[in-house]
Amino acid sequence: MISRIIPYVFMIILLAAHFSRADNDILAGISLLIPFLFLIKQKWVILSLEMIAYVAAVFWLIGAYQYIQIRIAAGDDWIRLLIIMGAVALYSAWTGFFLRSGKIKDIYGMNQ
């Protein structure tokens, strides 16, 4: 189960860094508290954490779009930015999907 949680926590740290870089320290702090929800062994927790991962992927795509627009306006290269932020968005979505393992479903009561 820990092998399913660690990638999720890393995704949250990346999200907090993204918010912090955008000078949104409140969202950065709140996002760092999200992994503590794993301590609550209820079905809604995993569903919520999964949804947060998918929303994080959308945040990354929105951020990528905004940064790409800035790069294009400045005449800079934007392809590398698209690849990196797209990969992080895919990673975020993958961590949400990764929470659907049988062991996690058993622990959080989702197989009932």
* SS summary, helix count: 5
| Proportion of residues in helical segments | over 70%
Fraction in beta strands: under 5%
Number of domains: 1
Biggest β-sheet: count, sense, barrel?
A: none
The overall pLDDT, averaged over residues, is 92
What does this structure look like?
By secondary structure, the protein is mostly helical. It has one domain (2-107). Helices cover 78% and strands 0% of the residues. The protein contains 5 helices and no strands. It has helices spanning 2-21, 25-33, 43-74, 79-98, 102-107. The longest helix is centred in the middle third of the chain and has 32 residues, at 43-74. The relative contact order is 0.18.
List the helices and strands and how they pair.
Blueprint: H1 2-21, H2 25-33, H3 43-74, H4 79-98, H5 102-107
Helix pairs in contact: 1-2, 1-4, 3-4
